Amino acid sequence: MRPYPDPPHGKRLRSAARRLEGCVRLVKPAHNPAVSSLPGALEARGLELVGHTDLSGKGDGMQIMRNGDFLYVGHMGDFGVGTSVVDVSDPAHPRVVRQISVPKGTHSHKVQLANGLLVVNYEQYPYRIGVPERTGLGVYDVTREPGDPQLLAFMPIRGLGVHRMWFAGDGSRGDRYLYASARLDGYRNRVLITVDMGEAARPAISSTWWWPGQRHGDPESLPEDNDIGAHHVIRQGERAYGGYFDKGVVVYAVRDRGSLELISSLAWPEGGHSHTHTALPLGERKLLVVTDEAIEPNCEGAPKNVHVVDVSDERHPREISRFPVPDGDYCARGLRFGPHNLHENRPGTFQSDRIVYVTYFNAGLRVYDTSDPLQVREIACYVPEAPPGQPAIQFNRGDARRSRARTLPRGRAPLRHTAPGNAGDPVARAGRGEGLLARLGAHLPAGSSRALAEGALPRVRLEDDRVRVLRLAALPPWEGPGSHRG
Questions:
Q1: Closest Cα partner for 339 from 357, 320, 318?
Q2: Which among 151, 77, 153, 73 is positioned nearest to 430, based on CA atoms?
Q3: Are the CB atoms for 292 and 323 separated by under 8 Å?
Q4: Among 346, 322, 486, 298, residue whose Cα is nearest residue 404
Q5: Are 434 and 409 within 8 A, CB to CB?
Q6: pLDDT tens-digit profile of 315-358?
Q7: What is the C-alpha separation between 112 and 143, in angstroms, rounded?
Q8: Which of 38, 148, 401, 434 is deepest in the core (most CB within 10 A)?
Q9: Coil, helix or strand at residue 262
Q10: What's the rounded Cα separation, in Å, for the pair 458 and 452?
Q11: Residue 454, pLDDT score
Q12: CA atoms within 13 A on the CB side of 232
């Protein structure tokens, strides 16, 4: 880990925030009609659609965070919107209440929520085209008016911008630090930065980590056709786990001031551009679930899988199995087919060390039981119809929560699910081209927690039409104990 020179702070930061206010403005939603009919599903097992929003006709929805009755939705950037604020107090009728634009030549497709702060990214968009007006991080205060975020700070970076972030904000574990991948001047592809959020109005990069050979002038050299670059990490205590595209999964120790120190890495035997994306620790099981991002359309390129990796010996991680691949004609449906994002068990959301939610582009949302890590089983799925003019859905992001959840398949969809083992938990997910709100129902597993058995379910809000969607799906019961927290 190397220190990042000359981090922005003080007067320079406040000046940058004022400049950002000039180019980030409120976008009045063009239309926000009540939805009279819900999109259909090509496949549905254990999921039920309950509501829909097209994000005021700006349906390029990406990452989602929930704050009480509001969702913050990052946009891919195709319509000039950076972040939508959606009122989901009635999950059957989500309503856009505010849309925030982005500086010219950028998008703001990622959001993080912690410590009363909404953090958004600013990155060059379209990728590798043009010169972005501003790049970095925007920090908004959402403590007083969650439906009306107020710009608190802007942290500029020298380069093409910030891509993906992790900010849990759990002070008891020292997580005052935000971790992000960024394209910085002087480096090839994305590297990892650690941002000190201890003073929310003065965020500052405290350290940078890159693969040897990524920095211009490094003595190490990388192949010309390589795609080695960071995606993001998930921090768990004094460890962080991430995907590093062509280098596979990486394991880091968290050191002083949140800096990262490489312990080990593991690439897949097939080689090629694996585009390894997310590494999710499964509680205290010493297992990671790792996704490769399917970037090429129509099943082209290197294989993209969901891997189970044993890190009980963290200096020698080993792959022990792979998730089953959805069975169907997905390669012929068009656009991307394959894994992408996982529900990341963030603080305050549904957490499980057994159940894993995977977005699978044109194969929708898939839900898996990892009780036996050598024989992972799919237990539910939901594949929405494609929007008009698009050959297939591109399901992209999700977020699972207790009592009310939202899911948006990549494009324009909010979804909602009740997670297995917590028959009243929902998810939110974003997908390009749809806007769904669905619920997943499943039998409570044997060995689920006493809190569930003794009445967690009555805490689920059942007013209005919500009571009609809390039906348990006819899925096979789980085997073995599980750890689940709502």
A1: 357
A2: 73
A3: no
A4: 486
A5: yes
A6: 999 999 999 999 999 999 999 999 999 999 999 888 999 999 99
A7: 14
A8: 434
A9: strand
A10: 10
A11: 27
A12: 22
For residue 392, the number of C-alpha atoms closer than 13 Å in the C-beta half-sphere is 22
pLDDT, tens digit (0-9, with 9 covering 90-100), for 281-309: 999 999 999 999 999 999 999 999 999 99
Neighbours of 131 (CB within 10 A): 9
Distance CA 276, CA 324 (A): 17
Strands 95-101 and 26-27: antiparallel
Nearest to 407 by CA among 365, 444, 441, 443: 365
Query: Per DSSP, what are the bridge partners of residue 280?
Result: 289
pLDDT of the residue at 242: 98
**Token pair recorded at residue 467:** 């009571």
Q: How many CA atoms lie within 13 A of 142 on its CB side?
A: 26
Q: Of 42, 15, 60, which is closest to residue 409 (Cα–Cα)?
A: 60
Separation CA 202–CA 198 (nearest Å)? 8
DSSP for 245-261, written as a single string: BTT-EEEEEE-GGG-EE
Rounded distance between C-alpha atoms, residue 86 and residue 69, angstroms: 8
Residue 387: per-residue pLDDT: 87
The two structure tokens encoding residue 340? 């992408």
Q: Which residues contact 401 (CB under 8 A, 6 or more apart)?
A: 66, 348, 349, 350, 425, 426, 427, 428, 486
| Exposure string for 439-467, b = 16+ CB within 10 A, e = fewer | bbbbbbbeebbeebeeebbeebeeeeebe
DSSP result, 107-172: EB--EEEETTEEEEEEEESSTTSS--S--EEEEEE-SS-TTS-EEEEEEE-SEEEEEEEE----GG
CA atoms within 13 A on the CB side of 213: 10
Strands 177-184 and 365-369: unpaired
Q: What is d(CA 194, CA 179) in angstroms, rounded to the nearest whole number? A: 5
- pLDDT of 23 reads 57
Q: What is the pLDDT of residue 32?
A: 57
Select 10-26+40-475's CATH number: 3.40.50.12280, 3.40.50.2300, 3.30.70.270, 2.130.10.10: 2.130.10.10
Terminal CA-CA length for the chain? 35
**pLDDT for position 19:** 53
H/E stretch holding 78 reads: none
pLDDT of residue 4: 36
| Whole-number Å distance between alpha carbons of 348 and 142 | 16
Low-confidence ranges of the chain (pLDDT < 70): 1-36, 170-174, 397-486
- pTM for this entry: 0.82
Cα 279 to Cα 251: distance, rounded to the nearest angstrom: 9
How far is C-alpha 157 from the chain's CA centre? 22
